[in-house]
Automatic annotation (TrEMBL):
Signal sequence, renumbered to the chain: 1-19
Record InterPro entries: AB_hydrolase_fold, LACT/PDAT_acylTrfase
GO MF annotation terms: O-acyltransferase activity
Keywords, in A-Z order: Signal
GO biological process, one term: lipid metabolic process
Source organism: Rotaria sordida
Superkingdom per UniProt: Eukaryota
Protein name (database record): Uncharacterized protein
Length: 405
């Protein structure tokens, strides 16, 4: 009898948790590097080393950390990099490299960078896990929208069409409940671009609000460093010059370069022995580093998103601050452009400059929907995704507790 009572109350509590907590469904939109990329090789051109595979079945290219170990990394970079066709203005994989972005609609490929699930490779996992313990279900009211993050906004039409369908499907699957968009980093500007294409009727019907975590509304100086001399891949220590061919080849790197709306026209962002560059000198900068394709990427993307235009839905902005973040890049004769610059620090989250994180302030008084924001001082760009304050905030919004405040 006691046993039955116990069981009964357990079931009751469980159902109650479920009924009380699950409110709005969520769709997670990752940032640069936050989706998995699978590849299949049938290469005709010789790879960089004799030991690089030429032929393969489908395998996880981004990101299997074993592929970015010294030596093997050159094979990895060569399979990740894109080539640009100046006539069509489109990028493609190298000949004989086929890629796909698995897991659209589910969360598994946006929860971890590396599918082995090592804790240090976790991405949206801590947020997703907390929601699951509250009664949320992966694939039903927790959805993911992974995409080919190497590409800029100019090459994402198919992704955005799929995304629109995912929003509608998620709404229907959850008894016609409005959806909350949860973005990290570059996922924020991508979502804003998509929102600008939707009618106010569509947004009112399908979207409850958007939570942007560490969104670079005005770009980041760090992207310039990637373009000029390469950079580590987030937490992974790799040789910048060896990953640079991939980083340069990705139009998304150009998309997140500092915006002319956020940096002053005489503000120096890069110093080289020959000249100083502002955000209006990108053409000269790319010519000087002998990578004019980077400027073409910038031109193809720079006017697609008006980041000063509000999304016209309720928004929540979470961002870290007070972490040294690249501010000005100082190169000398020895370092320009192949070695790492001396970096003058700026305020920010370690990756994104504070002025860019605060870009949502441009929307104030331009939309009738509320804009909420929360600064989390001392929290880094990626670490913010597992910070208890972030997890709690996202939970409050999704469970509808925030609405009651
Ligand atoms: C690999 O490419 C070659 C020619 O480039 C082609 O003949 C062959 O069928 C391809 N193999 C597969 C498995 O697609
Ligand atoms: C670029 O695209 C055009 C048009 O499809 C094609 O004719 C040309 O061969 C391509 N160039 C390269 C270098 O692949
Ligand atoms: C869009 O959805 C279709 C159908 O599910 C899929 O084949 C395609 O790969 C998706 N494309 C992108 C870019 O997500
Ligand atoms: C779906 O919504 C209707 C109307 O709001 C409600 O009566 C019904 O109980 C809901 N069903 C579920 C499964 O939540
Ligand atoms: C770059 O700017 C610095 C600081 O304003 C100045 O001292 C330097 O002369 C400039 N260098 C060139 C090459 O214009
Ligand atoms: C750096 O290069 C400039 C221009 O080529 C030259 O004038 C200058 O002397 C060089 N400085 C050093 C320290 O080599």
């Amino acid at each position: 009898m006691i046993y039955h009572l116990f069981l009964f109350s357990f079931i009751y509590i469980f159902n109650n948790i479920h009924a009380v907590n699950v409110h709005y469904p969520a769709i997670f939109i990752p940032g640069d590097g936050g989706s998995q990329i699978w590849a299949r090789l049938n290469r005709t051109l010789p790879p960089p080393h004799f030991f690089c595979s030429r032929h393969s079945n489908w395998f996880e290219l981004w990101l299997d950390i074993r592929l970015i170990l010294p030596e093997v990394i050159d094979c990895f970079v060569d399979n990740m990099r894109l080539t640009y066709n100046e006539t069509t203005k489109k990028t493609s994989n190298l000949e004989g490299v086929e890629t796909q972005i698995p897991g659209f609609g589910g969360t598994s490929t946006v929860e971890y960078f590396d599918s082995s699930g090592f804790p240090y490779s976790s991405y949206f996992a801590p947020i997703v896990r907390s929601l699951v313990t509250l009664g949320y279900t992966r694939g039903v009211n927790l959805r993911g929208a992974p995409y080919d993050f190497r590409r800029g906004l100019d090459e994402q039409d198919e992704f955005f069409a799929n995304f629109t369908q995912l929003v509608k499907d998620t709404y229907e699957l959850n008894n016609q409940t409005q959806v909350v968009l949860v973005t990290h980093s570059m996922g924020g500007p991508f979502a804003l671009y998509w929102l600008h294409q939707q009618t106010s009727e569509f947004k009112a019907k399908y979207i409850r609000s958007m939570i942007n975590i560490a969104a670079p509304w005005g770009g980041a100086i760090k992207a310039l460093r990637l373009m000029i001399s390469g950079d580590n891949i987030d937490v992974y220590i790799v040789s910048p010059i060896r990953v640079r061919p991939y980083q340069r080849s990705a139009p998304s790197t150009a998309f997140v370069m500092p915006s002319v709306n956020f940096w002053d026209k005489d503000e120096i962002v890069v110093v080289s022995p020959q000249r100083n560059y502002t955000v209006n000198d990108y053409e000269a900068l790319f010519n000087d580093i002998k990578f004019p394709t980077g400027y073409a990427y910038w031109m193809n993307n720079k006017d697609l998103l008006n980041e000063l235009k509000p999304p016209e839905i309720e928004v929540h902005e979470l961002y870290g601050s007070h972490i040294p973040t690249p501010g000005v890049l100082l190169y000398d004769n020895r370092t320009f452009p192949d070695l790492q610059p001396i970096v003058l620090p700026d305020d920010g989250d370690g990756t994104v400059n504070i002025r860019s994180l605060l870009g949502f302030k441009n929307w104030e008084n331009k939309q009738k929907q509320d804009i909420h924001s929360l600064e989390i001082p001392g929290v880094e760009h990626l670490a913010i995704l597992k910070h208890p304050t972030t997890i709690n905030y996202v939970t409050q919004v999704l469970t509808g507790q925030f609405d009651k405040k």
